[in-house]
Design goal:
about 575 residues; 5-stranded parallel sheet; about 30% helix; Dna Ligase, domain 1; D-amino Acid Aminotransferase, Chain A, domain 1; about 30% strand; Rossmann fold; alpha+beta; 4 domains
């Protein structure tokens, strides 16, 4: 087994891998940006090294910096987690060139399945068919118009080298195509470092079904049941469950066998997920994620198999110690993603900020995977996943009820969260009867009566001393220093509130277009003198890797524009003034 593993990631997944390494007696090495200097994954790892900078491009996507740390720490393997470099074939090759093991599939498999077009072709080569789509990259809006003439709208424009709903836009009419292409390219480039796009027919009410596979380096491939991930917003998942409910066993077996064919067809090894869309008794191949999935814990709870442990063992050359015949699915598991977003009215606006209190639930069948603790900061520069609440029950009804109980005990203060939306989903008759689809949350679920405000901890303003951990870095390696200092955070907050109050008092209401969160202006969509109506987009704001249109709340003419592309803005900042 490996002696030392570097985890090229952050947050919850880095913590998950660090804990698995510790249980196996493997030394764990963390990397951290300036913003993550005191993050949970940084504190838990046996060793931690600095990646100077703040943005993902400067830090966790900086190949040169990570390779230098690999040389210094002398790790013999790298676990990429999910996101960042997890599906980057070039990174995997650079790792292997140094004689270090990449804990994932071969670079060739990543290339085939990372390019969604070649992935479609690879699946078709083994008789697994997908949703009608193109095998050519989008280079002009005219291609989308032509495709829609054959298959109709809506059309899904998707990142060829992406996944997880990032870089995906759905267009319902010809006039939406050009802006959707621009937005998908920006989002894909920011998240995956590539901006190539392709398109598919967009099914109207499918369910999103996943098959978890494990493949060793000796030719053995098995599938570990299935997951339903249909409760989504912005094509990103909110709630996942295993096994997928209310689908005939014959269909699920056929999907599992198809997933194994796809994996074998591309010479896959390690853990991976083959995704399908299911509608009207038919299933269609969607894509393969060549990495560990965010929702892997629900599979772990119903199979009893530690997927990260399996990843490490497979990468070390061990054959699978379980066969398809040995697999047994027990009970039902549900994973609820706790994101720093305000779901009020279905907006799901990102909510970066400091977590003043995080108190997880407990009890039989409850698991809480998080990369944060009380006092940690949710940054606009990274994904806004705070934690995953994972619950097991003897059946689906028990799992739903236990999830609702656990959510009622979970306390998160300081940032808005998706918890109210999660409760609304779990309590809804459509979800409980399995009549929901991937469009259901955005098209049918009524979230107008819910809210999730940034509540402060009751102890937030108390004056006391704090145990403060800071760091000393010697040649980029982190060493912890502990000291006790006065808690002046209440003073800082009061100053900030007074400052915000003065700023708000100088405004003149809805004629000032304000941003609801901190972030970066990606694009300004209007010019001085333009006429706008209520609801017209003024600019595009990127926060936590998501693009958000900032809309006019008043009709009139643009008198003033106060931002440009690339500007950083804070919550409540004025970006434009309407006459």
């Amino acid at each position: 087994m490996f002696s030392k593993v570097l985890i090229a990631n952050r947050g919850e997944i880095a913590v998950r891998v660090i804990r698995a390494c510790r249980e196996l007696g493997i030394t764990s090495v963390a990397v951290y940006s300036d913003l993550d200097r005191n993050a949970l994954h940084t504190r838990l790892a046996d060793e931690a090294y600095a990646l100077p900078g703040q943005s993902a491009a400067e830090t966790y996507l900086n190949t040169e910096s990570i390779l230098k740390i690999l040389e210094e720490c002398e790790a013999d393997a790298v676990h990429p987690g999910y996101g960042f470099f997890s599906e980057n074939a070039d990174f995997a090759r650079e790792i292997e060139k140094k004689g270090i093991k990449f804990i994932g599939p071969p670079p060739e498999s990543i290339e085939v399945m990372g390019d969604k077009i070649s992935a479609r072709q690879a699946a078709e080569n083994v008789g697994v068919l997908g949703v009608p789509g193109t095998t050519e990259l989008i280079t002009s809006p005219e291609q989308v118009h032509s495709f829609a003439e054959t298959y109709g709208y809506p059309v899904a424009i998707k990142a060829a080298y992406g996944g997880g709903g990032r870089g995906m836009k759905v267009v319902s009419a010809p006039e939406e195509v050009e802006s959707a292409i621009d937005s998908a390219q920006r989002e894909s480039l920011a998240y995956f470092g590539r901006d190539e796009l392709y398109m598919e027919r967009y099914l109207t009410a499918p369910r999103h079904i996943e098959i978890q596979i494990l493949a060793d380096e000796h030719g053995n491939v098995i599938y570990l049941g299935d997951r339903d991930c249909s409760a989504q917003r912005r094509h990103q998942k909110l709630i996942e469950e295993a096994p997928a409910p209310d689908i005939p066993e014959s269909i699920k077996q056929a999907m599992g066998e198809a997933a194994v064919k796809v994996a074998k067809g591309c010479g896959y090894t390690n853990a991976g997920t083959v995704e399908f869309l299911y509608e009207d008794g038919e299933f269609y191949y969607l894509e393969m994620n060549t990495r560990l999935q965010v929702e892997h814990p629900v599979t772990e709870l119903v199979t009893g198999i530690d997927l990260v442990e399996q990843q490490l063992k497979i990468a070390d050359g061990s054959p699978l110690d379980i066969s398809q015949e040995d697999l047994e699915i027990r009970g039902h598991a549900i994973e609820i993603r706790i994101n720093a977003e305000n779901p009020a009215g279905g907006s799901f606006l990102p909510s970066p900020g400091k977590i003043t209190e995080l108190s997880p639930p407990d009890g039989f069948g409850v698991r809480f995977d998080s990369g944060y603790e009380s006092g940690d900061e949710i940054s606009q520069f990274y994904d806004n996943l705070i934690a995953k609440l994972v619950v097991w029950g003897k059946d689906r009804v028990t799992a739903i009820n236990r999830s609702l109980r656990a959510l009622s005990e979970l306390e998160v203060s300081g940032v808005a969260t998706t918890i109210p939306a999660d409760i609304a989903i779990l309590e809804h008759e459509d979800f409980q009867s399995c009549s929901h689809s991937t469009k259901w949350v955005e098209d049918s679920l009524d979230l107008s009566g819910i809210s999730s405000e940034k509540e402060s901890s009751k102890q937030e303003d108390s004056q006391s001393t704090l145990k403060k951990e800071t760091t000393v870095e010697v040649n980029g390696k982190r060493f912890d220093v502990t000291m006790w200092v006065p808690d002046n955070s209440g003073v800082e907050r009061n100053v900030k509130r007074r400052s915000q109050g003065k700023k708000a008092a100088s405004g003149s209401g809805t004629n000032e277009v304000r941003v609801p969160m901190q972030g970066t202006i990606i694009k300004v969509l209007v010019e001085v003198g333009d006429s706008v109506e209520i609801g017209d987009p003024i600019c595009v704001l990127e926060a936590m890797k998501m693009e958000n249109n900032i809309l006019a709340e008043k009709a009139g003419k643009i008198m003033e524009i106060r931002v440009s592309s690339g500007d950083s803005v804070g919550n409540g900042d004025v970006v434009a003034v309407i006459e």
